[in-house]
Amino acid sequence: MPSESHRTAVEAQTPVAIPVVPREQGDILHLAAWLIVAAIIIAGLYLGQGVLIPLAIAFLISFALSPLVGWFTRLGLSRILSVIVVMLFVGTFFGALGLLVGSQVRTLSAQLPTYQSTIRTKIDDLGQQMRGPGVFDGALETVDTVQKEVAHAVQGDEPVAPTQKVEVVNPPASPFETAITWLAPALEPVATAGIVLVFVFLALLDRSDLRDRLIRLLGGNLHRTTDAMEEAGTRISKYLLMQLLVNVLYAIPMALGLWVIGVPGWILWGTLAAIMRFIPYVGPMLSAIFPISLAFAVDPGWSMVLWTVALIVILEAVSGNVIEPMLYGTSTGLSALSLIAAATFWTALWGPVGLVLSTPLTVCLLVVGRNLPQLQFLDILLGSTPVLDVPTRIYQRLIADDPDEAIDIIDDAIGDGEVAEFYNDHGIAVLRQARDDYLNNARAEHRLRVVNGLDDILEDLREEYPPAFPADTPPVVACVGGKWEIDDAAAEMLAHALQLKGIAAVPRPAGVANARYVDKLALDGVDIVCLSYFSRDPERAVRAICRRLRHRWPGIRIVLTLWDAEPALLKTEKVQSLGADEVATSISEAVGRVRRMITPEAITEEQTAPAPENDAERVEALLATEVLDGSAREDLDALAKRAADVFHVKFAVISAIDADREFIIGQSMDLPGDLTRDGTDMITMPRDEAICDHVVSSGETLVVNDTERDPRFVDHPAIQLWSTRFYAGAPLRTADGMVLGALCLLDTEPRKLNEEELELLDTMAADVVSVITGEDVVDPEPKKQESSATVGQNLPD
């Protein structure tokens, strides 16, 4: 019989079966946990509103006053003195405003009894107009008679004893209880205001300490937490400032208009309008009731009422359609639906104060959702930015068998642009998603819907954007699908893009590119064939078809359009070993390479950008800065090195262009190669070989993720000399709009820049302009986020 120790050892070595929770059950438990947490938070917000409401109001006011405190601090005042000055200024302003409004209220109270006869006369007139036989008077009399008959039948002729009323008389309240009853409601808002005042003072005074504690509380990624706090503070501060400005710009014309109309108390009603408009949705309606009612009471006729209503309607239209879009500019990222839902939620939770605080609090939730991955669902629920990009939205409409709506999305995406740009930026991405889902997720029905929808879309685009040459023009280029329908659709997009560039191109259906069908391609007279493949490894198929094409048409030239091939297949040596002449990975690159093959002189045309219309004034402004004499070289080299370090690129240069030359006026390192230098030891190049001429020509930031894929840079002398694969240039724009040159980032490997990095590059370019001109240049406006046209609301970014 085994001993106890032996049994224990055996049990210790025996694996224990751990129950595995199914994934679906785990998701349910995870959702249940989140719902419990949400319920606890909502309950805490409701039960703790006595403390949380003053805190929320205080922090909201501190967000609005913080920029003013920072301004006084930068002037040299201490932090505590700046806070005291700001609070005294704000208190004095509101005190003076209260005295003015109080005097208006007293004057208006004294005048109100004189309007009683006017009100009574108008009410009597309205009553007389409402009298007379109505449409339903007969029916109402019939119903009343029936009710009396039924009551008489139920009660009969027996007399009913009258009901005796019992009156309960409460003992008289003591003077102390009476004082408490009257003072408690009055002291509650006073106490709340005092708490808010103390919180505002402490929040402004200990702003840095509060920020540090909040960062420590949130933990996690320090960069992400800092960005979230800065974004929330900036958005709320701008929102409050812009709302205050909008309300003032509404209140001043309203007060002056009421004064001209003759409505008493016009200063009071203008001030009330400015204050009440801080309350979303209902505030403007409430502020309009009082002047309209007073106009009704003052004027014996109706002209004053009509003029007052017309004034308010016009001001609302101008404010909502002109002033607010102009001042707010971009969106907070909140959708209209989320704003209404948030207003309802916070009003139900905290009452009228919650309605006032609903937008700032929801902005905070949105920012948290954008910066914390665990709460990203808040960004999805509250944000106005489409959660699906354009290609995904189009692809989803195709799956849903709704090509008409997909065409509407495409029309919005094209806008004032070109169809070729849409094909390059979105069209190929749609086909790539269809390719990825073809074997994994899509059913046969879905595949049929996608193919049919693509046919409808391409047919519609061809009809809406026809080529500029006659339909019977002999084709020069044939775009052939390599294997299946997705390759065929890509070939049709490329053919249409070539047609819009004036090149006679025709598509050929997919499948016929197999070896046995080569003779059916009908390529007689065609100079270039573009083979379209979405396969990641099309090497064997490409080699076979190229061999047969050249055997059947020896003089034909072949361009491979490999939308998803591995980088090794894109090398020039590899392409030539497959039997092709050129390779492209995008619509724009394919169009550029075909143009170069048909007209070799297009190389110089593509690399040389046209001079801007104000080129003479631009050159004059550049020469006036005297930067070309090398006086600011040290500072500009430092800025170039900083840009290279910040963006982690191989090197950065600062370029300026005069009438016929480009000057490298700043560089982060010694550039390789034998380059021409002038007397100031600056590198110079002819303008037709300038690396930033395209930026100067367009005045816009230019990013080339891979210079080998862009015809403008693939054979550029400086790009080749410096072995550059990545280029990004931001214009050096002066305060009067003259583009002097560009701040350029260059790297030896392909890469991309996100929206935040592009904004930072523009900001650093503005710093360069400040050094060149010696004047402060306003930072460029941040790029607008794409927002939903149906649910977006204009609020500050």
Describe this structure in a few short sentences.
With about 800 residues, this protein is an alpha/beta fold. The chain is built from 29 helices and 13 strands.
Descriptive overview:
- Strands 9-8-7-12-11-10 form a six-stranded antiparallel beta sheet. A five-stranded parallel beta sheet has the order 3-2-4-5-6, sandwiched between helices. Strands 1-13 form a two-stranded antiparallel ribbon.
- The chain is α/β, with parallel strands linked by helices and 797 residues long.
- 33% of the residues are buried.
- Helix 3 (49-74) packs across helix 4, helix 9 runs antiparallel to helix 12 and helix 18 (419-438) packs antiparallel against helix 20.
- 60% of the residues lie in helices and 9% in strands.
- It has five domains: 40-111 and 187-205, no CATH class; 220-381, no CATH class; 388-465; 474-600, Rossmann fold (3-Layer(aba) Sandwich), CATH 3.40.50; 609-773, 2-Layer Sandwich (Beta-Lactamase), CATH 3.30.450.
- Residues 787-797 have a biased composition (Polar residues).
Q: Supply the number of structural domains.
A: 5
Which percent band covers the strand fraction? 5-15%
**Assigned CATH superfamily of the largest domain:** GAF domain
* CATH topology group of the largest domain: Beta-Lactamase
What level of helicity do the residues show?
55-70%
* Helix/sheet category: alpha/beta
Q: Runs with pLDDT <50, length 5+?
A: 5-12, 14-18, 782-797
> How far do the termini sit from each other?
80 Å
**Tally of individual helices:** 29
Mean pLDDT rating: 79
Tell me the strand order in the biggest sheet: 9-8-7-12-11-10
Instruction: Kindly state the number of beta strands.
Output: 13
For the report, how would you describe the main beta sheet?
A: 6 strands, antiparallel
CATH class of the largest domain: Alpha Beta
From the coordinates shown, what is the CATH architecture of the largest domain?
A: 2-Layer Sandwich
Shape descriptor reads globular
The radius of gyration computed from the alpha-carbon positions, rounded to a whole number of angstroms, is 37 Å
